[in-house]
Amino acid sequence: MAALFPPPPGPRFVLRGTQSPVNTLHFCPASQALESPLLFSGSQSGLVHIWSLQTRRTVAALNGHRGQGVTWLKTLPQGHQLLSQGRDLRLCLWDLAEGRNTIMDTVQLDSVGFCKSSVLAREQLCWMLAVPGKGSDEVQILEMPSKTSVCTLKPEADAKAGMPMCLGLWQTSSSPRPLLLAGYEDGSVTLWDISERKVCSRIACHEEPVMGLDFDSQKAKGVSGSAGKVLAVWSLDDQQSLQVCKTHELTNPGIAQVTIRPDHKILATAGWDHRIRVFHWRTMKPLAVLAFHSASVHCVAFATDGLLAAGSKDQRISIWSLYPCP
Amino acid sequence: MDPALSAVRLTVQEAIHTLSSSEDVGHILSTLGTLKRYLGETENPTLSEKEEFTTTHFSAVLRCLVSRLSPGWLELSPDGQLEQLWESFFLDGPPDQAFLVLMEAIESTAGPSFRLMKMARLLEIFLSKGRMAALMEEQCRPQTKPSFPLFQETLLSKVVGLPDLLGNCLQQDNLTQFFPQNYFPLLGQEVVEALKAVVNFLQGGLDCSVSFVSRVLGKVCIQGRKKEILGVLVPQLTVLTQDSCLWQRVCWRLVEQVPDRAVEAVLTGLVEAAPRPEVLSRLLGNLVVKNKKAQFVMTRKLLFLQYQHTTPMLQSLLGYLAVDSQRRPLLIQVLKELLETWGNSSAVRHAPLEQQCYISKAILVCLAHLGEPELQDIRDELLASMMAGVKCHLDSSLPPVRRLGMIVAEVISSRIHPEGPPLKFQYEDDEMSREMLALATPGPADACSSETGGPSLASVVTETPVEIPEKTVDSDVPSVQPQGSDSELDSDDEFIPYDMSGDKELKSSKEPLYIRDCVEALSTSEDLERWEAALNVLEGLVYRSPEATREVSVELAKVLLHLEEKTCMAEFEQLRQRALVAVTVTDPERVAKYLTTQFYGVNYSLRQRMDILDVLVLAAQALSRPRSLQKLPQHGPPGCGTLCAPALASSQPGNAAAPDWQVVVEERIKSKTRRFSKGCPQRELSGGPNEFNSVAGYFFFPLLQHFDRPVVTFDLLGDDQLVLGRLAHTLASLMYLAVNTTVAVPMGKALLEFVWALRFHVDTYVRRGLLSAVSSVLLSVPTERLLGDLPDELLEARSWLADVAEKDVDEDCRELAVRALLLLERLKDKLLSISSP
């Protein structure tokens, strides 16, 4: 039967030159502020590289984390402001407009963990930020850019959830109440209602710490990957309670990140087994196993036009073009 | 003498006189009319007078008519009355005489002429009016007068030889009706008509003999026209014999009466043409039991002496033997003899593969027909011949022969021990093995369906088109179902999954980083994961650090050569081989020396010795290639191209092997780029020096030294001929790879001597190796050196090659010999073209 399927494709192109393992990736679409689409990569050496997808070269390298690894990158909707989180306990806000590469503001973090932050844009100049908090099991919510702390979300003491490992802020289009999905060290995924500061629902879907999650608010379904062998798909019903719909067993344990493509058709996982896996989002049918990297893949990111980027410990960023968006 | 009869004679004489001299139309017509009365149905001339005319005078009248034939004579009566009357004598009179006179006249008439064409046209009409059937019917009728054997003989030869005779006489002007491909089907049809008449006579209580028809049939078949005549005859007889015992008896009689020397041709034709065993049984009856000659043809000649027949024919032949209880002992006898031949080691060695295949098929068909009790009776004999046969089949150096042995043994053992644990060999499934196994399953359902369906001609014709749609429906079902279950609502078709077979479990990283670590891990390590990891990375390590490898090359080669599979690694053999090749390429002189001495060492298995040979060839191939190509991961031989890309990529991180897409891109660029300078793209590659040059001797000569000196565990000229075959092939490859090297000439000389010593070896595989060795000598040694240094060897080789090309039993051997001869021929042309200007 194997002969029926085409062999997996190779990458469209490969970006080399970070000279350090790539921890995080983020696509920035072309907007009024930027003429060409860009890719941001954060490396373990503390640099943020900005790649032009047209020339396939670095446009600039931002050095703002004092040689400590960059764990998370995100542009704000305006397009010329970049958030970067580093292991130096700082979250930097960069101004990239008109070729400037300067730090506008920083937020001091209290957690030394690997938890990536999450951001939710609410209005033009007002956005909400979820960062790991001071206590090891806390999540702190900040109102930006004023940096005022809205609240601190702390699971009940008897839950023994452990550290938060990954965060996802979102809100439904119908109600303005912001919600937070957090994956914890004990393998559970928790849904927080931020305005009421309470846990809406909690499911234990993994045996191992949750390493990455992504949520599709249209279908009210999300997916999470852990250090174990299982990929879990869960859904959210009208009573705001989470339920596991489906699990998928992987060949090798360890998922560093899970990302659903913006058009909600497919999703990709970054595997510790050096491979990128692509699934059909609705059916979770495996579509491809991309074996290109020679070390753990740390991150996967999708561009709005469907381009897939993966960054790996082998210091390379591979760019793939699979199942093009219609 | 009867006065009435002498009156007839007088009338005829008078008429002949008139006809030959008179020019008066009225007179001629009236004379002919008088004669015509003797042929008519009227009462006027008495029956005895008619008979006298037809038996005694008719031929004379016809001859006279023929002699008068000319355009002027026919035009004497302008309304064509004369011509009509003239023709009617030939078409209405006794057919045998008319036919003979016609043929005689055609033969004696020279050149293209009016008369010849007229006769030919008349013969055509004669044929188309069914007179040939009448002729044969006449011969089958109870003979009232003593028959003349000579007359029948002449008639027979004319009937059968008609196409040849006509072809010779008419040359370019021959009529299509007389072409053999048209005439013999017509004759077949006429035979059916004649037989119908015979059946009618028999029903009417008359005695008949079909011997003339049998002789016609026999003669036609001997002349090699059995397809044409039986192609018409058999389908009709199939239908006619279905419900009628009388027809069956006529058929049996027809075949029985065939003269001995034609029995083989007729029976072969019938077996070929009969669609099913039941039909054959209806046509032949118990002929094999009654007739010795037929028995010989059916049970020996068609099975043991010939092997070109198709499988369906085998099935209907053996099925025929199985249908009737009287013939079943013959089937058992046949099975025993077949097994005896099958288990005969000399037959296995000398018979061509096709024949072995044929005999194996026959055995399987026999087994399918025989029942449990019959097999139990001869169980011991079967077992004995099976054991002998399996042994000599498995000893063969040709994989197809080995596989035949396995398949047949499996089937036999499953039939004689149906309850015991099944004998099971490991062999690759291919078309042949599937076909053979299908033969072995008894097909009663199949036989029933075709029998109950009623083998009328119409159903025979429609059977095939009916079955085809059924089959396609069957094959469609599995492909339809998954689609139906898979496509839920919207189109998932855009998401076609890629091949995910490469998704394997990742091994923990215990990879050694240095060659010495690898050697240690492979030779002593108890940690199996480390052992596997070491084997996985070894090839890459060797190529990356040639210096370090040279320090331990022989030791490493030794470890690898003795390496045994400790775990179930998927690609153990390939990894080990590739590593050995890498070591040999890195340090050719020392490792090749080591390996070639070990080849004749004492404590090695055949497998290891053959591994040595393979490694030497692959290493030589890698060495003789330009450096730039070696970087590519294609060290593998052309045969074992199952290199696994992911495994290779993981074994060499960093300098990743060029993945498929790069190759694809390069191919595409190559196909789109137009290059003016080069004709053949391969020329460009061979730019660098041949690194095999300096070391070819180390690879080659030690292998030749001891082949005729057996040691206790290794006897190349005795039982270990498989290795000898491999050795011959290896030497041929090494010779070929040594092209353009300085040692090519002594190598060629030594190799030709080796070939000469073994040229009459009985094993096919060895001979193939020797033949390719000769070819590679011709390819690798420069032309002028060949002629200067090896003229005698060449002459000897040439006569041997010519002999093999003509007489060898193996098809591949013959082909290889022809190729070598062609190379020699080309060499000659080249020399001539050099010397002539």
UniProtKB/TrEMBL annotation, chain A:
**Keyword annotations from UniProtKB, A to Z:** Repeat, WD repeat
Record carries keyword Repeat:
yes
Keyword field contains Repeat:
yes
Q: Name one GO biological process term.
A: DNA damage checkpoint signaling
Gene that this sequence comes from = Gnb1l
- Write down the InterPro entries for this protein, in alphabetical order: WD40/YVTN_repeat-like_dom_sf (IPR015943), WD40_repeat_dom_sf (IPR036322), WD40_rpt (IPR001680)
- In its UniProt entry, what is this protein called? Guanine Nucleotide-binding protein subunit beta-like protein 1
Q: What SUPFAM superfamilies does the database record attribute to this sequence?
A: WD40 repeat-like
Pfam entry (one): WD40
Intervals holding WD repeats: 15-61, 203-244, 290-322
One of the record's GO cellular component terms: nucleus
Q: What superkingdom heads the lineage? A: Eukaryota
From TrEMBL, chain B:
Q: What is its main location?
A: cytoplasm
Q: Is Membrane given among the entry's keywords?
A: no
From which source organism is this entry? Mesocricetus auratus (Golden hamster)
Similarity annotation: Belongs to the TEL2 family.
Gene label? Telo2
> Keywords on this record?
Cytoplasm
Q: Which residues form the TELO2 ARM repeat domain?
A: 324-435
Tell me where in or outside the cell this protein is found: Cytoplasm
Record's Pfam families?
TELO2_ARM, Telomere_reg-2
Q: Which residues form the Telomere length regulation protein conserved domain?
A: 512-620
Name the lineage: Eukaryota, Metazoa, Chordata, Craniata, Vertebrata
Magnesium among keywords? no
Highest rank taxon of the organism: Eukaryota
Specify where the region named Disordered lies, as residue ranges: 469-492
Query: Under what name is this protein listed?
Result: Telomere length regulation protein TEL2 homolog
